């Protein structure tokens, strides 16, 4: 009997302790899960908090002025200042031969764009393959990128003058002098060539950064298989750097359309005969000299649309080429 009385007294106590342990364990797990849930929400919100300042700056300093400029392009200049004029400014742009010349030069830039991308790409390839003197070339090729466009333009004005050293060198080998900046047929090619020389250092750095992500085992396998340099570039380097190439294509095109004003102003001032006009130079003429801000806003809007369309087309073409490879 004493033993039988002891057993019931022990079992409820053990059961109570077990139930309490289970309950306290569940409470701890619930607390941890709530803390984990709170941490996951914080982690989900963290990226938005971090990018919010950049988005705010872009909206206030980029998108909002862009919308104001588009709205202003539908108003008049001079006596019709602030008056809605519909599409009159855009129709005037179409009828302006200087603006049509500027659009034609944009087409020329698009045609020359592969050359502007191929030059730093090939140089980066040679540096990556460690040709003799690659360390010296790395610094020398980037040097023009740190020069001001005004300085670059002044230097090449001296070099390309009709009585300058380049024509003197051509005359010493029996070739007649060339009016590099005074001939409407070649002046734009000369300015674009100078721009490529002055800016390809940045693209070179981007390509070298892309090469850092390239699988070196693929290059080693190509060498073992006896692939030529052209085959290595076509079948290994270009597919491996497809995203880098797409980035360089877009940024180079944007730079050509928006960063050549300094060279144009110093080297040709839009001449000869308006043959070196680009949209950004046309915008400056209308705004700064002709005092026609509404027409300049219309030209700015047209330039933005051109950049957007060309950039999207380039990305799509490069993606399609990458899928085909």
Automatic annotation (TrEMBL):
Transmembrane segments: 45-64, 106-129, 141-162, 186-214, 244-267, 294-313
UniProt domain ABC transmembrane type-1: residue ranges: 98-314
GO biological process entries: transmembrane transport
Principal localisation: membrane
Region (Disordered): 1-40
Compartments where located: Cell membrane
Topology relative to the membrane: Multi-pass membrane protein
Pfam families: BPD_transp_1
A cellular-component GO term for this protein: plasma membrane
Record carries keyword Membrane: yes
UniProt keywords, alphabetically: Cell membrane, Membrane, Transmembrane, Transmembrane helix, Transport
Entry similarity comment: Belongs to the binding-protein-dependent transport system permease family.
Official protein name in the record: Sugar ABC transporter permease
């Amino acid at each position: 009997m004493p033993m039988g009385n002891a057993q019931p007294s022990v079992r409820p106590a053990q059961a109570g302790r077990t139930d309490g342990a289970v309950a306290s364990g569940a409470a701890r797990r619930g607390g941890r899960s709530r803390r984990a849930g709170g941490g996951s929400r914080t982690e989900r919100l963290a990226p938005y908090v971090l990018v919010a300042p950049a988005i705010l700056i872009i909206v206030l300093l980029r998108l909002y002025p862009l919308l104001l400029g588009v709205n202003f392009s539908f108003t008049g200049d001079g006596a019709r200042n602030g008056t809605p004029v519909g599409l009159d400014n855009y129709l005037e742009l179409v009828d302006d031969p200087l603006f049509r010349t500027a659009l034609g030069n944009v087409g020329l830039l698009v045609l020359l764009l592969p050359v502007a991308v191929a030059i730093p790409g090939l140089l980066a390839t040679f540096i990556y393959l460690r040709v003799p003197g690659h360390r010296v070339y790395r610094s020398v090729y980037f040097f023009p990128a740190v020069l001001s466009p005004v300085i670059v333009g002044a230097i090449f004005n001296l070099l390309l003058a009709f009585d300058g050293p380049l024509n003197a060198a051509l005359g010493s080998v029996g070739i007649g002098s060339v009016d590099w900046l005074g001939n409407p047929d070649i002046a734009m090619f000369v300015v674009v060539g100078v721009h490529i020389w002055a800016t390809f250092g940045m693209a070179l750095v981007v390509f070298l950064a892309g090469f850092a992500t390239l699988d070196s085992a693929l290059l080693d396998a190509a060498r073992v298989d006896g692939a030529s340099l052209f085959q290595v570039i076509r079948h290994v380097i270009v597919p491996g750097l497809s995203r880098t190439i797409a980035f360089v294509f877009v940024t180079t095109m944007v730079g050509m359309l928006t960063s050549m004003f300094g060279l144009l102003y110093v080297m040709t001032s839009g001449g000869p005969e308006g043959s070196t006009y680009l949209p950004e130079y046309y915008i400056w003429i209308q705004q700064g000299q002709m005092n026609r801000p509404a027409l300049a806003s219309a030209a700015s809007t047209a330039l933005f649309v051109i950049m957007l369309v060309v950039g999207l087309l380039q990305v799509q073409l490069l993606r399609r080429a990458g899928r085909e490879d």
